[in-house]
Amino acid sequence: MNNRIPQAIKFAVVATVAPRWIIAFLAAEGLVIPDGWIDTWTVVSTVLAAAFAITDGFAFSYVFERWADMRKGTKNRNLVLGFAVASAVVFVAVLGPSMAASVRGMSMSEYFGDSELFLNLWTICIGLSAMLIVITVGIAQDKSDTSQDDPELKRTKDKLRESNKQITALEKELLLSNEKYTKLSSELGIYAGLASDVKKDKIVVALKLWGDKIKHKDIASMFDATQSQVSRINKEKE
Known about the structure:
Structural class: mainly alpha
Number of strands: 0
Number of helices: 9
């Protein structure tokens, strides 16, 4: 899978949660957003909040797609699943109280009332939600436990597999040629053994005709060897 996709998801997560981090960092410095910025800040925060929700959807889709591609029982696969489940739990923990407060027409401060513990836990979940998604996508990005090959590597393996098939076919063809060669040699020996009863020229002509018929690539050299053998047999006969 293209490495730019997880990088884009991580960048989008950080970019869309920027408003809440800015507010938090300003508060850490003892500052607040000026009243004149509130209207503009509300619009920007609303747009980025919607973008964050969409980015979360893409992030979970990517993470579980990568999880499905990983080999079963591997460390990364289990780790990705664990972080994905944790991200989902934190995501629901952020949405749950917000939805309940919205249904009741209450602000979050009114919803939590005097419960500082639950308010702090909720705000911690808001901060964790983005970080967990970035971490989970980063772990899922690792290809070391992937069961499916990178496209370029897969194409290379396919070419090697095809080459192996061609080599196997050539080996079979060579084996068949060797069998034909052995048979040819045996039959040439028989022809040579008959030289005492047949004239030399007729043997050579017969062998040449037979060689042209089977079109063996080594037939020329075999003719020369046979002719020498026929000459020797005729000399011994004389």
